[in-house]
Design a protein that fits this description.
Largest sheet: 7 strands, mixed
CATH superfamily of the largest domain: Spore Coat Polysaccharide Biosynthesis Protein SpsA, Chain A
Number of domains: 2
Number of helices: 13
Helix content: 40-55%
Mean pLDDT: 87
Number of strands: 9
CATH class of the largest domain: Alpha Beta
CATH architecture of the largest domain: Alpha-Beta Complex
Radius of gyration: 25 Å
Distance between the termini: 34 Å
Structural class: alpha/beta
Low-confidence stretches: none
CATH topology of the largest domain: Spore Coat Polysaccharide Biosynthesis Protein SpsA, Chain A
């Protein structure tokens, strides 16, 4: 049975339509289901409107004494749920309830975790401004950068609509902070097959958004806490050590070729960068991404190398530009090389980390 958990706070204007459409979507798939509405003491009669549907839809209300937050509402709803599959969605119709149907099919076809995604082919957002799109993409990219081992291959880890088998959560201590509980689940749950199902995120037509500055701060705190508790920080330390060694190789080899071997800077710089990249790749294979299941230089190593080189092209180009500009300003060789390394490294760290991690995640 699927237990649909719907956190609410002052959603009386839309809650009945949400539940009716959710019920119709699951009935169209022949699914047995229940809906657990977790209401944080709404003053507009949200709970009463849910109870009025009792004879029409298998829905019940879990009343909480105050506004305790979306993530904890999901956990409380899960504790009260009777199904072997949890579905989570918002009540405000920004997640069209019809997406429950393809999510249920994905679970029935063997997925342990099915995510409604805005950022896979067929998904999207309805009428967002470019500012809101940029904020959403930045937050998603930030999550994949801080937790690349878990999120590098997930298109929409910020989604608020998903289904998960209850068995995937057994033995897992969920302690989310803020409103993005899916991050906690992806980082900690024991799932095998993850599927993303496209959907179009809709603009809210009634009611008011619950997001504010506090929620954004909690999101950042949540990311850092997950990095510590999942061991991702250790991987970052290893990767940082590899990157630092590569930077030293880049600078030292460039200075040696120009100052001691008599090379011109133009051919010396690309060679120094390439040797540093190869060093980074080798040590990433041996140190950062090594495990008993993923031995270094295993199947697909040449494909990984080609992908890694392609990802780092932009950073290498920026390295060349920054180094050339420094030299043109009559700076010293060491300063020029360091400026190039910092510029290229910053680009890779801020933009390319999810792609770099995905190089070792895919196909291994």
């Amino acid at each position: 049975m699927i237990s649909v958990i719907v956190p609410t706070f002052n959603e009386a204007a839309v809650i009945q339509e949400t539940l009716r459409r959710a019920g119709a979507a699951l009935r169209s798939e022949g699914e047995e289901f229940e809906i657990v509405v977790v209401d944080d003491a709404s003053a507009d009669g949200t709970a009463e409107r849910v109870e009025a549907l009792a004879g029409e839809i298998p829905a019940r209300v879990l009343r909480r004494p105050g506004r305790l937050g979306l993530a904890t509402a999901v956990l409380d709803g899960g504790a009260a749920a009777r199904g072997d599959v949890w579905a989570v969605m918002d009540a405000d119709l920004q997640h069209p309830p019809e997406v429950l149907a393809p999510l249920a099919r994905a679970i029935r076809d063997g997925a342990d975790l099915a995510i409604g995604s805005r950022y896979v082919p067929g998904g999207g957002t309805s009428d967002w401004t470019w500012v809101r799109r940029m904020i959403s993409r930045t937050a998603t990219h930030m999550a994949a950068t801080v937790l690349p081992l878990k999120l590098a291959t997930v298109g929409d880890p910020m989604s608020g609509v998903f289904m998960i088998r209850k068995s995937a959560l057994e033995g897992t201590h969920l302690n989310p902070l803020g409103y993005k509980i899916l991050l906690e689940i992806i980082a900690k749950a024991h799932y095998g097959k993850l599927v993303e199902v496209p959907y179009i995120f809709q603009e809210r037509e009634q009611g008011a958004s619950k997001l504010g500055a506090r929620q954004y701060v909690e999101y950042l705190q949540h990311l850092l806490r997950l990095a510590l508790r999942t061991g991702q920080l250790q991987s970052w330390v290893r990767y940082g050590a590899v990157a630092l060694a590569g930077a030293f190789i880049d600078v030292a080899l460039f200075v040696f070729l120009v100052k001691d071997a008599g090379w011109r800077p133009a051919p010396a710089l690309p060679l120094a960068i390439e040797v540093a990249l190869l060093s980074n790749f080798v040590w990433s294979e041996v140190l950062t991404f090594y495990s008993a299941q993923k031995p270094p230089f295993g199947p697909g190593v040449w494909r990984r190398l080609a992908r890694y080189e392609g990802i780092c092209v932009a950073g290498a180009g920026l390295n060349c530009v920054a180094t050339g500009l420094w030299l043109a300003l009559r700076g010293g060789l060491v300063g020029a090389a360091m400026a190039g390394v910092l510029a290229g490294g910053a680009l890779n760290m801020l933009i390319n980390i999810p792609l770099i991690w995905r190089t070792w995640q895919a196909g291994r």
